[in-house]
Every structure is written in C-alpha cells, then in structure tokens.
Amino acid sequence: xxxxxxxxxxxxxxxxxxxxxxxxxxxxxxxxxxxxxxxxxxxxxxxxxxxxxxxxxxxxxxxxxxxxxxxxxxxxxxxxxxxxxxxxxxxxxxxxxxxxxxxxxxx
Amino acid sequence: xxxxxxxxxxxxxxxxxxxxxxxxxxxxxxxxxxxxxxxxxxxxxxxxxxxxxxxxxxxxxxxxxxxxxxxxxxxxxxxxxxxxxxxxxxxxxxxxxxxxxxxxxxx
DNA sequence: CGATATCTTCGACATTGTCGACTATTTGGG
DNA sequence: CCCAAATAGTCGACAATGTCGAAGATATCG
Lengths: 107, 107
Hints:
2 copies of one chain form a homodimer. Chain A is mainly alpha-helical.
C-alpha cells in the first residue's frame, strides 16, 4: 500500500491538526502562509484536501450558514486515525534520517 | 525560483549528508532502506539524484575503478551549499508546523 | 576474449503540486 | 422580490516528483 505523504500533503495535514475544529479551505491556507511561510492559492489547498479525503486520511462535514455577510457554506476537514498514522510515520522517518545531524539546520 | 524539495528528495539529500564521501547510488539506497525503512529501486534513487544535480543542489565526481571484482565506476554525489540551504529551509518549515504538537507522534 | 559482477542511464507512466477561471451559496439593500 | 457583493468550493490543465523494469557501460578474472 502506498502510504507515503507528499511534501505539501504533510503540511496540510499538520495545519488540520493545529486548526482543530475551525479547519476549512481559507483557514488552512492562512495557517500555511503564517506558520509555514508558504504562499499557495486556495485552489491548491482544495485540491490537496480533496485528494487526502479520497485517500481516506481526512473526513469532511459541511457546516451551517454563519451569521456573517453572506457566502457559501464551509466544508470542514478533520484528520482521521489513518491520516494521523500516516503523518506520524512520515515524520518519524524524517526524524530518523535527521537524528544527529544538527549541522544541517544551523545558522 | 521554486525551492521546495519533494518528500523523497529530502530523504535522499539527508542520506547524502549522512554518507559523506562514500555516497553513490548503492550506498544511498542502502541508507534509505536501513534508516528510513523505505525500499526503493536503484533506478528511483538515480532519477532523483539526477534531478537534484540538474537543480544544482548536488555535485558529482566519477571515481576511479576499485580493486573489487569488476564493475563500472561509481559516481559520487555531494550536497552543495544551495542544497544544504534548501534542505535546511524545508526542515525548518516542518519544525515550525510541528512545534507543540507532540500528540502527533505519540503512541 | 567472454562470462560475470557492478553501476548508471533510458523511456514510461502514476502521483503530487499548482493554478486560473468558473460555479455555487448566502445575506443585506433597494 | 431580485440582485449585487461577499464567501467558499469545484473544474480542467499542466508541470514537477515519485517509481520502475529493461537496457547500456565498465571492470576484473580466468
């Protein structure tokens, strides 16, 4: 089974973990721009989110309309166990490969 | 200037750092199988190595024939400053995204 | 030389990464 | 009511990465 996560998929999954409940397209993108200093279009975020869902790593639920000034309903995303596992494995591999190489991220 | 490294590119670059001088196709693959518990074909490793070179992230030098039982010459790879920088940035982003999320890799 | 052991390169195809443009919902005003 | 404005998501495409199996290059030893 192919359980490796792409570079961007990892970041999106991590954003979901950080955001908890309030995770949907716009917030995920914002989190990525702030914390990861990476600017991406919303379309890019949605595409990856859709693929993660197709792979069964995240779940979605369409929210109720909010009292704000109009706008379509939000589609919330949450990481599921399988997703958390995939993320854990990926990060674990990275840690194993970097352990003892402080020279890499110095300066 | 797209400076993001793919998931596998990161692992290969890290393998190069770990291997130092003795880094070439076969050893890189071995390092990946051992430390990263990831099995890949040699062709896969070479393809990525070639692309990293094309992007100017690694340098190569063809070695002299070794006294072993025959075989073609090895092509050694070494990460260059630009590569180290790209790797550092990528890992830094990951760290920023994971900081404070110990729950992710527990259990 | 020729068989055999080592390595690297080719040609292809599947996954991911990235968008710009377009569609769907909602709500406040006129 | 109906529509402009505000939000949020979906489509269709194309570039970059991930992955091989098969083929091509060199060496060394009898």
